[in-house]
Amino acid sequence: LLGRTDQPDLIVSIQKILAELEGTAVVKELEAAIRKPVTEAQEKICADTMAKLGKPSNISGLQEVLETSDSVPAKQAAAEGLANIGNAQACLVLARNAQADTAISEYCLSAIESIDSEYGQQALLDMVAMEYPSTVRTAAARALGNYRSTHVRDQLALLAGVEEDQNVKDAMEKSVATIGGRTAAQPVITGPAPDGFVENKGKQNFN
Questions:
Q1: H or E, element range at 17
Q2: pLDDT single digits (tens) 29-51
Q3: What are phi and psi of 198, to 5 degrees?
Q4: Would you say the C-alpha torsion 6, 8, 13, 17 has a positive or negative sign?
Q5: What is the structure's pLDDT at 43?
Q6: Taking a C-beta distance cutoff of 8 angstroms, is the pair 124, 144 a contact?
């Protein structure tokens, strides 16, 4: 039905249903629709739907699309979907592809900057602290500014104090200032996401 209906409420309902599906099958079907859409609208809607996928079991399918698809919109949507899931595994896939000398590195860097999943906080802190290229570490440092965690703020402040790469240091300090300007604080979650976890625009939904 995606791309064959112009009813906004129906489109949103279908996207919500698809975002709840487990595994790689839904990813493959969406990629096929993006690569050979029935209408121009279908390509855009299916790409938007892929970007909203939120199940950890979608990760392997999204990784395959990101690394092997011949469709640029599908690759971009896969990177955004991985960022939407935002757990340690998804962050690792994005970091690895962001440092590759390929066309998808730009999509991955942009996706990393957008991560705001609670399950991505420690993964992003690790990314900043590890020996990734400056561009990857800078993107991760910027993403950490999406949080309201005092733990993230304090860790970034410590790292910034010894950071030698000026671009990374600037991104760290900016995120520290951004977090410090917020009154609420959310705890860091370092364990794996529970079964049924869906991350969508910073909110948790449990089935």
A1: helix 8-19
A2: 899 989 887 777 788 888 999 99
A3: -130, 125
A4: positive
A5: 86
A6: yes
> What's the mean pLDDT in 15-20?
73
Residue-wise pLDDT for 127-170, tens only, equals 999 999 999 999 999 999 999 889 999 999 999 999 999 999 99
The helix (run of H) or strand (run of E) holding residue 198 is strand 197-200
Closest CA to 142 of 72, 55, 83: 83
Residue 54: is its pLDDT beyond 60? Answer: yes
Our CA dihedral for 182, 154, 186, 15, rounded to 10 degrees, sits at 90
* Entry pTM: 0.81
Long-range CB pairs of 202-205, under 8 A, 24+ apart, other chains included: 202/116, 202/117, 202/146, 204/118, 205/54
CA 101 to chain centre: 20
Residue recorded with tokens 């733990």: 151
Longest dimension (CA), the chain: 55
CA distance 82 to 200: 11
